[in-house]
Specification:
Chain lengths: 310, 422
């Protein structure tokens, strides 16, 4: 775990707008707590969900967070993420549920993709929707941000899902001011996105300001990687390589953390939050530009979201 | 905020686009992002590729915000898209809203949180019904700043008389509305004239470019510093050994400034007590003001639950079951006298029945229509409702948090209307 506060003064931190975003996110979290019964916070071990947990702690201090953390586990994880997840749940005395895509495959709910580009990313939606149904979950808080992707840019804070878990982007409920309508019929649920209005840079500056612990994967480290379609992917024993693809080791860090099969890594030597922030401020590629799951088609995210994706 | 000519702290400006179909709202936002170098390489590659696929001959910047498949196919905006960008002067949240009357509810969604509205007008067409509707909605929502962008000047030979004529027509409209700060800019969103860079074609215009204007416009926030309002969202009861007796009333300040020791009245009981502490994550705050999410603990144990409100005993809001308000109707099913709905006003929920419909706004004439008072989807009307219990509120113009509400259909659970209390 890194703790690098000493350089904070070197970076121009914009407290006023971060404070406004934090106020908004806390307000949304409290609305969730008040309007729903069975509440989960979708926890991937990535920075956005770690920030969500931090905001939830702030929103309900000195009580423990009133949400169960839920991890949809593809089985293709960076190992450190799992340890980080378990430690975090223990440290903050939060309930943790893990639902495995492998179980959905074993019981025939999911047919595993084959071939070199096989990923369990899409399959997560089925495992997630099954868990929502099984546990009677009526709200799932997610770390989705509108700046990530063009379909996400259309999402409401309180996003309704019908009894099939589907999103209807052409017919969303109007969302006026900060009045959130979480009413629904039995079997339906909501996805709520408290950090909708945050940008990638806002998240990083907030992590720095609030001294939030992150997995070391976000900082530079040596890793075996290979290149596919212009994206550097982390190598893992279960990944199939094309004959032309060569694995090599170099200094990298993760800009996002998800399923290992579709999370691109960045060549970087940044080992402090300040360096990461400078890197992101200067980059010309979006955060999800390195996500293999979004490259599948023009409307890959919209299609997955309609099916129930995060 | 400029102090001694240096930018001390970046503020956040929320702006919304508005205007009729094909006036170029999405193109303006695309142009703004493109010319201010806020488009990333992979996004650029994406819109070039999808422009080719859709058979567009020139670079189509509207593809940046029209993110849904159906929008890209039809070349229209269906729902609000939010975009984020920053310059050294400010951070911006842009809501790019649809122009079709059919999607007015989505336009209102985007505009309801905006500090500033940018209304586009096609220079070839001038002021249209949707221009008037959106300007009126902006004034109803109490947006303090409007920028009228007279767009497509390239198609009108950059003509000054055309601009002046439309400006004069808009000025007449503005006279009927209540908008304190209005600006007019001739632009070409497609070619970028007066968006980020000053136009070479419009030499007769010596005002600010669009970007320069939104970077420098002084925004009025926290309109009600005296008006102490704290709606209680939820109660925090830790039940731990360390905080066994702690009871925190969590919420977001809707107006005024609160300090520990302040006397407050609790609504609806009207019981009085004092603020013991204002807490956030283990920190005791010396004060909190409009917009702050905090938890308050009080001197006395009083029955307080979600939906209640802490206010200054010397400035109590209206407490009543009869409310006169302006409503924007979003549903196919008409609003009718006798109709029953749930209303949600910040954290409070009550039942209501529509007692009377006084008039419908005729958008074309901007006059109140007392004869034809059938309220259909996208209509705006003045109505009176009776609530199932006494509720507390302020006029929307005084406080847009304690003065606003949504109407929810109990059968379908849909949000069917938005109300602004008079």
């Amino acid at each position: 775990m890194k703790d690098k506060r000493q350089m904070k003064n070197l970076i121009n931190i914009n407290d006023e707008h971060l404070k406004e975003l934090e106020n908004e996110a806390i307000f949304v979290m409290r609305e969730v707590a008040a309007q729903f019964e069975k509440k989960v916070l979708l926890f991937s071990g990535g920075k956005d969900s770690i920030v969500l947990v931090h905001l939830a702690r702030k929103a309900f201090w000195p009580a423990r967070i009133p949400f169960t953390l839920m991890h949809i586990d593809t089985g293709h994880n960076f190992e450190e993420t799992l340890k980080f997840r378990d430690d975090l749940a223990k440290e903050f005395d939060a309930e943790l549920i893990v639902k495995k895509v492998q179980d959905s495959i074993d019981n025939g709910r999911v047919v595993e993709e084959q071939g070199v580009n096989a990923s369990r990313n899409k399959a997560q939606s089925i495992t997630l929707l099954d868990a929502i149904e099984e546990l009677n979950i009526d709200v799932a808080i997610g770390g989705g941000r509108r700046d990530e992707e063009k379909a996400r840019a259309k999402e409401r804070f309180f996003s309704h899902r019908n009894e099939f878990g589907q999103w209807d982007p052409k017919n969303q409920r109007p969302e006026l001011w900060n009045i959130f309508n979480g009413r629904k019929h039995p079997g339906e649920h909501f996805r709520v996105f408290p950090i909708s209005n945050w940008t990638e840079l806002d998240v990083w500056q907030y992590i720095l300001n609030e001294n939030i612990k992150l997995p070391n994967l976000y900082y530079t480290h040596k890793r075996k990687i290979f290149k596919r379609n212009g994206i550097y992917l982390a190598w893992a024993p279960f990944m199939q390589l094309k004959p032309t693809e060569k694995v090599f080791e170099t200094d990298v860090r993760c800009r996002t953390i998800g399923d290992i099969t579709c999370t691109g890594v960045t060549l970087s030597k940044a080992d402090s939050l300040e360096e990461i922030i400078s890197e992101i401020a200067a980059t010309r590629i979006t955060e999800r530009g390195g996500r293999y799951d979004d490259k599948r088609s023009e409307a890959a995210m919209e299609d997955r979201k309609k099916e129930g994706y995060f | 905020m400029k102090i001694n000519g240096k930018i001390k702290n970046k503020s956040l400006l929320r702006l919304t686009t508005a205007g009729s179909v094909d006036d170029g709202k999405s193109t303006l936002i695309g142009r703004l992002l493109y010319d201010s170098k806020s488009i990333f390489e992979d996004q650029m590659e994406h819109i070039v590729q999808s422009g080719k696929r859709l058979g567009r001959e020139e670079l189509d910047l509207s593809l940046l915000t029209d993110g849904l498949r159906a929008e890209r196919e039809q070349g229209i905006t269906i729902d609000v898209a939010y975009r984020y960008f920053a310059t050294p002067a400010r951070k911006f949240i842009i809501a790019d809203t649809p122009g079709h009357i059919q999607y007015t509810r989505n336009m209102v969604t985007g505009a309801s949180t905006a500090d500033l509205a940018v209304i586009l007008i096609d220079a070839r067409k001038g002021v249209l019904e949707q221009t008037i509707r959106h300007s009126y909605i902006a004034s109803l929502l109490d947006i303090q700043h409007i920028i009228f962008c007279i767009n497509k000047m390239d198609m009108m030979e950059w003509s000054e008389p055309v601009f002046k004529c439309i400006k004069a027509e808009l000025a007449l409209l503005v006279n009927k509305l209540n908008i304190p700060d209005v600006h007019y800019i001739p632009i070409s969103a497609k070619y970028g004239d007066n968006v980020v860079d000053r136009s070479e074609n419009i030499k007769w215009y010596d005002g600010k470019t669009f970007l320069n204007l939104i970077e420098t416009i002084e925004i009025r926030k926290n309109k009600n510093p005296e008006n102490k309002r704290f709606p209680v969202q939820t109660i925090i009861r830790p039940h731990t050994a360390e905080f066994h007796d702690y009871r925190g009333y969590a919420g977001r300040v809707a107006g005024g400034l609160f300090k520990p020791g302040d006397e407050v009245a609790v609504l609806p009981s009207l019981l009085r007590t004092k603020i013991k502490s204002i807490d956030l994550f283990g920190e005791s705050l010396s004060e909190c003001s409009a917009g702050d999410s905090v938890a308050m603990s009080l001197d006395d144990q009083i029955d307080i639950s979600r939906g209640d409100m802490l206010v200054s005993p010397h400035d109590i809001p209206v407490i009543s079951q009869d409310i006169n308000l302006m409503v924007c109707w979003f549903n196919e099913r008409q609003l009718k006298v006798g109709g029953r709905y749930l209303i949600r006003m910040n954290s409070n929920v009550a039942g209501c029945i529509v007692k009377s419909i006084h008039y419908r706004m005729n958008i074309n004439t901007m006059e109140q229509d007392f004869e034809n008072i059938t309220i259909n989807m996208n209509d705006i009307a003045n109505i009176t409702i009776k609530t199932s219990k006494p509720v507390f509120f302020d006029p929307y113009k005084k406080n847009n948090i304690t003065g606003s509400m949504i109407f929810v259909d109990e059968g379908t659970n849909e949000t069917v209307g938005a109300g602004m209390i008079l």
